[in-house]
Amino acid sequence: MNDDEILAKIHDLVSQERDATNHGDPERRRRIEVALDQCWDLLRQREGLRDAGKNPDEAQVRPEGEVEGYLQ
Description:
By secondary structure, this protein is an all-alpha fold. Helix content is about 70%, strand content about 0%. The longest helix is centred in the middle third of the chain and has 26 residues, at about 25-50.
């Protein structure tokens, strides 16, 4: 996935998150939030690799436990 594809996925997930919130579906919303966090993490990885002069395509989606375990 390139940056534009990831951003399109993020926009789609935000719409889905709104829908899940409006329909009172907390489990679906939680799954969507995890997917959003993974997408944002992937974008940050790609940016970091690019800034380091490396290939951004080496970035990979990290597992839920890793992404959700980050300290804010």
